[in-house]
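A reminder from the course coordinator: this example appears on the midterm review sheet, so study it carefully.

Given structure:
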């Protein structure tokens, strides 16, 4: 896999960490380690230039992880201990909610262990970690291992681990243990149509659902599982639609 450089311009903000996407816009956290201040920034995907969401959005905390929950429509950040420089050392590992309009943070609670990465998963909810993958309670901030026996590979230094984490939004949990998920969404031969491919069981009834904001899903059409364990259907008239989210559900 080869990365493509977006622009020769600098982001223009110090120490950018924790990228995430909200409503098609790219966001990150810019950190001034000497001041113990972090700012929510919006990054132009065409030029790569970052702009603070609001000048008043700085705070005395160092955030390394950032995630956006499209269901609750909230940003979350993970604070990490940082004792160097500035008048007040930041010796805590708390979960914060970040206001998407002002950048102001609200402390939720203690994660219990440093998290340098966060992501949102459609089944597990907020996840994050440094040495292992954790599921995070967004009410209390408490983090619990998804699998306590599984640890990320790292160089043995306890300060090092996973600094970036991402999740596939199309990864929908199968009901009753039966595997069903969308495997591909692409333009059909007619560019105004969308072809949706998903795993299925032969002859089983399914409902294809659609949402414009991941807050509410409505029925789009019914489908029947194919003998080849996949079913491809087409949604017509998608011209002018900026965002569409799809999911598959078993019909009772």
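Designed residues:
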């Amino acid at each position: 896999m080869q990365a493509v450089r977006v622009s020769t311009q600098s982001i223009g903000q110090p120490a950018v960490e924790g990228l995430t996407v909200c409503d098609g816009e790219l966001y990150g956290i810019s950190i001034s380690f000497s001041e113990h201040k972090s700012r929510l920034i919006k990054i132009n995907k065409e030029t790569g230039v970052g702009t603070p969401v609001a000048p008043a959005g700085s705070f005395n905390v160092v955030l390394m992880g950032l995630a956006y929950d499209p269901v609750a429509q909230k940003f979350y950040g993970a604070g990490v201990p940082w004792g160097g420089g500035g008048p007040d050392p930041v010796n805590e590992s708390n979960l914060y909610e970040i206001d998407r309009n002002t950048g102001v943070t609200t402390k939720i609670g203690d994660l219990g262990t440093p998290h340098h990465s966060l992501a949102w998963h459609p089944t597990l909810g907020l996840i994050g970690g440094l040495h292992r993958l954790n599921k995070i309670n967004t009410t209390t901030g408490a983090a619990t291992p998804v699998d306590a026996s599984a640890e990320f590979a790292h160089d043995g230094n306890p300060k090092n681990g996973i600094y970036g984490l991402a999740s596939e939004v199309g990864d929908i949990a199968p009901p009753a243990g039966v595997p069903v998920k969308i495997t591909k969404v692409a333009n059909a031969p007619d560019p105004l149509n969308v072809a949706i491919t998903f795993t299925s069981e032969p002859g089983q009834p399914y409902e294809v659902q659609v949402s414009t904001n991941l807050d509410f899903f409505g029925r789009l059409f019914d489908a029947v599982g194919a003998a080849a364990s996949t079913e491809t259907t087409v949604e017509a008239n998608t011209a002018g639609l900026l965002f569409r989210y799809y999911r598959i559900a078993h019909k009772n």
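The chain has two domains: 16-145, 175-250. The mean pLDDT is 78.
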